Recover the amino acids of this structure.
C-alpha cells in the first residue's frame, strides 16, 4: 500500500470516528404546476433518506434517477405534502420533503420573472462566452448587473465574481498587497465566514498582521487598533453572522472608523435584499452605508442565483480586477445566471412585499419561541449534540429538513 493510500484511508477513518465526515445528499426540486414552483420542495430516493436518517456518510453515490413528473396535472407521480409521502414507480421508492435549510430568503429562485429571464437568455445566448472576464467572458449583461448592484449599494462601481467566497479572498488578498515598506493589519471578527478567514490567512506575510477580535466586541477591537502601529488597518466583518444570525455592531464600527481611519469591509451575504428599505443590506438599515469602503455580497442567497460581487469605488475596482487572483483566474459567470440575478434584483427592489413577508415570518417565529429574532437565521440551542441530531432526524422523518 502506497503512502498516499495509507494517508487517505487514515484521514477518512479519523474524520468518520470524530463524526466530522461531510456528506452529499442528492435531491431534486419538484413541482406539479408552473405557478407552484418552489425551491424548498424536493424529492429524494429512499436509499438517500435512510442514510440521511441514520447519519451515515455519503459521497452521493446512492442518489439514483428521480422518476419523471409532468406538470399541469397530467401525471401526479409525486405528491407534495408537508409530511413525507411514499411513491413507487418502476420499482423505486421516492420521498418528498421541505427544506428549512436553504438561503433562498425571498424565494426568488422560483419567481416567474426570474425563470423567464433565465430561459430567454439561455435560448438566445446559450451559456455565454466561456472565458475569464478579463479575456472574453465579460458581457453587456455582466455590466448591467454590476451597475444595478452599485446603485443598490450606493457605491461608484461593482465587480462581479464567480462566488461570494472568491469575492472575499480576492478583496482581502488585494488589500494586503505590499506597497513600499508599509505594514498592513487585518482585524477580523472571530465568527466571520470561512471565506474571510481563508482570505486573511492567505494574505499573511512578513508585512501583514492578523488580529482576531472577540465576537462583536467593539471594546476589544478598539484595544487591538490602539496597540497596532501598522501603516494601513483593515477591519472586516460579516453584517449578519451565518451560524447564529446576529448582527454586527455597525454603528459602533462606523464611529471607530472615524477615530482610527481604518478601511471598513463588510460581507453582506445574508443581508443583501433582506435588510434595508430597498434591500440595500444591514449597513443601509443601520444608516452607515456611506461609511463602508467595500461591500461584499453573494448572488446565491436572497438573489436565488449564483456568484459574488464587490461594490466599491471605481479606483478600487480597477485594482481588484488587476490583482485579485480569485477573480482574474476564474471563468466569468454564465450569462443565464447573470440574467436570473438581474431579474431577481429588479423584482426585489420593485416589490417590497417579498421582504415584508419574510420579516413577518421572522417575527411570527420569534413570538412562538418567546424571544426577538435579529434575522431569518435562527439558532436554537436545545441540548447536547446527540439530542440535537435526534430532533433533526425526527423532523426529517416528518418531512422537514432542519439541520443540526
Amino acid at each position: 500500500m502506497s503512502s498516499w493510500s495509507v494517508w487517505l484511508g487514515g484521514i477518512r477513518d479519523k474524520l468518520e470516528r470524530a463524526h466530522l465526515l461531510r456528506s452529499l445528499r442528492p435531491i431534486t426540486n419538484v413541482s406539479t404546476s408552473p405557478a407552484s414552483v418552489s425551491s424548498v420542495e424536493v424529492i429524494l430516493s429512499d436509499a438517500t433518506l435512510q442514510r440521511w436518517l441514520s447519519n451515515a456518510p455519503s459521497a452521493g453515490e446512492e442518489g439514483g434517477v428521480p422518476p419523471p413528473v409532468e406538470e399541469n396535472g397530467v401525471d401526479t407521480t409525486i405528491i407534495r405534502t408537508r409530511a413525507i409521502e411514499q411513491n413507487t414507480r418502476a420499482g423505486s421508492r421516492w420521498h418528498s420533503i421541505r427544506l428549512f435549510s436553504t438561503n433562498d430568503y425571498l424565494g426568488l429562485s422560483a419567481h416567474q420573472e426570474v425563470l423567464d429571464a433565465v430561459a430567454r437568455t439561455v435560448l438566445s445566448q446559450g451559456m455565454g462566452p466561456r472565458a475569464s472576464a478579463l479575456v472574453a467572458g465579460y458581457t453587456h449583461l455582466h455590466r448591467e448587473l454590476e451597475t444595478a448592484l452599485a446603485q443598490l449599494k450606493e457605491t461608484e462601481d461593482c465587480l462581479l465574481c464567480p462566488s461570494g467566497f472568491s469575492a472575499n479572498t480576492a478583496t482581502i488578498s488585494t488589500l494586503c498587497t505590499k506597497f513600499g515598506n508599509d505594514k498592513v493589519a487585518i482585524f477580523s471578527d472571530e465568527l466571520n465566514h470561512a471565506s474571510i478567514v481563508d482570505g486573511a490567512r492567505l494574505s499573511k506575510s512578513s508585512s501583514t498582521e492578523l488580529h482576531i477580535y472577540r465576537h462583536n466586541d467593539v471594546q476589544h477591537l478598539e484595544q487591538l487598533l490602539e496597540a497596532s502601529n501598522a501603516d494601513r488597518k483593515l477591519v472586516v466583518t460579516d453584517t449578519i453572522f451565518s451560524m447564529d444570525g446576529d448582527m454586527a455592531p455597525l454603528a459602533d464600527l462606523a464611529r471607530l472608523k472615524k477615530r482610527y481611519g481604518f478601511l471598513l469591509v463588510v460581507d453582506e451575504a445574508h443581508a443583501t435584499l433582506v435588510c434595508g428599505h430597498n434591500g440595500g443590506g444591514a449597513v443601509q438599515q443601520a444608516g452607515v452605508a456611506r461609511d463602508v469602503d467595500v461591500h461584499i455580497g453573494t448572488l446565491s442567497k436572497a438573489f436565488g442565483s449564483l456568484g459574488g460581487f464587490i461594490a466599491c469605488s471605481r479606483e478600487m475596482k480597477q485594482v481588484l480586477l488587476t490583482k485579485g487572483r480569485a477573480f482574474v483566474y476564474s471563468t466569468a459567470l454564465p450569462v443565464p445566471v447573470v440574467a436570473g440575478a438581474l431579474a431577481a434584483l429588479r423584482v426585489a427592489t420593485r416589490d417590497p412585499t417579498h421582504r415584508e413577508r419574510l420579516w413577518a415570518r421572522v417575527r411570527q417565529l420569534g413570538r412562538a419561541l418567546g424571544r426577538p429574532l435579529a434575522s431569518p437565521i435562527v439558532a436554537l440551542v436545545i441540548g447536547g449534540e446527540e439530542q440535537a441530531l435526534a430532533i433533526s432526524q425526527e423532523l426529517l422523518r416528518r418531512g422537514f429538513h432542519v439541520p443540526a
Summary: The longest strand covers residues 92-99. The two ends are 37 Å apart (CA to CA). The first helix runs from residue 3 to 17. The mean pLDDT is 91.
